[in-house]
Every structure is written in C-alpha cells, then in structure tokens.
Design brief:
- With 269 residues, this protein is α/β, with parallel strands linked by helices.
- Helix content is 25%, strand content 27%.
- The protein contains seven helices and 18 strands.
- The protein has helices at 39-50, 63-69, 100-113, 197-208, 225-230, 242-247, 259-268; strands spanning 7-10, 16-19, 21-24, 54-58, 77-80, 85-87, 93-95, 98-99, 120-123, 126-129, 142-144, 154-155, 157-161, 178-183, 187-192, 215-219, 233-237, 250-252.
- The strands form four sheets. It has an eight-stranded mixed beta sheet with strand order 7-6-5-4-3-16-17-18. A six-stranded mixed beta sheet has the order 11-10-9-13-15-14, with no helix packed on it. Strands 1-2 form a two-stranded antiparallel ribbon.
- β17, α6 (242-247) and β18 (250-252) form a beta-alpha-beta unit.
- The chain starts with 6 loop residues before the first strand and ends with a helix.
C-alpha cells in the first residue's frame, strides 16, 4: 500500500499550512560546534524524508566542505556559497558568481588602498589567497596569489576576514551588481546580488512547485534572516543572533542541543 503523511502546522499568520519542505542552515544551526551531526538528528531527517517532507540545506559553505563534514547526511536540494551555487541534486545547478576578471580588479584595488588586508577568493572548491588560508580554514586547499593571474572561471565569492570589525569602507570598491554579507561577525563575503539563500530557495521552489508558505526554515546568522522571514515558519536556534530571533516565528533549542531535529520531531513527526 502506498501512502503519504501530510504535516499540518500553523504559520506565522496563524493559518494552517501544509509543510512540504524543511530548510536548515548548517554552522551553528544544524551542525554542532565540532561540525558534526548527531545520529539522533540524522535519524530524524531520515524519518521526515520517509514521510514525504523534502529536506534542503542552505549554507555559506562550499559543496566540498559539506561533503567533508557530513558525508552521510542525505538531502534533496542544496544552496551553497550563500546562494552562489544552487544544486537541484539531479545534475542541474545554477551559478550566480563573479567573473575572475572582476574579482581580480576588486582585490587589486582594495589592496592598493589597504595593503595589509587578507583576502581570499573561492572558486570551484579552491581558495586563492594572499595569506595562508589554513590559518582560518584548517585543512582547506589554497593557492597563494597576488590576484594578478587567476583561472578564467567564475568565483563564488570574495572573502575578507574581519576580526570582529565590519569594514564599511570596502563597499566603495564594489560595482552595483555585487554586495557584502557578514558571516558569524568574523567574515565579510562579497558576492553577486543574486547569490542569496532566498534566491536559491525560490529557484528550487519554482521548479518543484512548492510555495514559500509551505516551508519551515531554520537559521542563526544575518544571512538567514531573509529566508526565515519569507518562509511559512521561520525558526531561530536559541544560540542565534538577536536580530535573527526577532525575525523568527519560533525559537528552538541550540545547535548543541540538536534543536532543529527536536523541533522537527515534536512538530512534524
């Protein structure tokens, strides 16, 4: 016998919603602080998918890093690089990046004014940087560069370590089609304006016929606010930034407490 379970939940406006898709950020949301996923959380996701609810990850991390940290986690769709790469997990991908020529121009101009800045460019699972990238991303593959000669490929993003200080001055070096996003208050990410988690989510929803109102989204950081506000239910983990909690419909337990999985089990299973 074939059957499916339709999960009903009240959305942020108090209306009954049918949950068809669950989306989660990874770092400090679904992943524990040691970058692992518990066997409990994995089993909850497996049961949720077995019951017919789709599962998507939306992360600023590159695809290779996700596969290194959580090789056993199964998901139906993925948004990587904060939206610069959208993976439908069926061989179809969308890429919202920065040309290598523009990326080099920005880095060279920035270093001419601020020669002490550390900069890295993420391009097809490789980091090109003017400093040892492993100082910030242990185990990461990187190539030293002065940003005068990069492969003629599309870059996902330009990364500038912040050390807790947001450098608004970088904005003057960006063309109108690029923007800056802060991650965990430690990293400035320069990306294509189309490279946003919500843009990637909407692209997937358009293809598979799911409305944003039928989605539950989990997050903790500034780059999660847009999707948390747009989806039917937006849930912030208890360790999230205050701005994220203010934007959320609900608060769940922290990433260390498997808050995402516990919320799913209590409300959808």
């Amino acid at each position: 016998y074939m059957y499916c379970v339709i999960m009903m939940k009240t959305d942020k406006d108090g209306a009954i919603m049918q949950v068809k898709l669950v989306i989660t950020d990874l770092d400090r949301t679904f992943l524990r602080d040691d970058k692992t996923v518990s066997s409990y959380a994995t089993s909850v996701i497996e049961e949720m998918r077995r019951r017919g609810i789709l599962f998507m990850i939306a992360t600023a991390r590159p695809e290779i890093a996700v596969k290194q940290f959580i090789p056993s986690l199964s998901f139906d769709y993925a948004v990587y690089h904060n939206g610069a790469l959208v993976d439908f997990c069926d061989g179809h991908v969308l890429h919202y990046g920065i040309s290598s020529e523009i990326a080099m121009q920005i880095c060279q101009s920035l270093l001419k004014s601020y020669p002490e800045e550390k900069i890295a460019i993420e391009m097809e699972n490789m980091r090109y940087s003017n400093f040892p990238a492993t100082d910030i991303w242990p185990g990461a593959d990187f190539i030293y560069t002065d940003f005068t000669d990069l492969p003629k490929k599309v870059a996902e993003k330009i990364l500038i370590p912040m050390n807790g200080v947001y450098h608004h001055k970088f904005q003057e070096f960006l063309p109108d089609d690029l923007y800056m996003q802060i991650s965990e208050n430690t990293l400035c990410m320069i990306m294509n304006r189309k490279a946003r988690k919500l843009t990637g989510i909407q692209s997937i929803c358009d293809k598979v016929g799911i409305e944003l109102s039928e989605i539950v989204a989990f997050g903790d950081d500034l780059n999660d606010i847009e999707m948390i506000k747009a989806c039917g239910i937006g849930v912030a983990v208890s360790n999230a930034l205050d701005e994220v909690k203010s934007a959320a419909t609900e608060i769940c337990g922290s990433n260390e407490e498997d808050g995402v999985a516990k919320w799913i089990e209590a409300n959808l299973l």
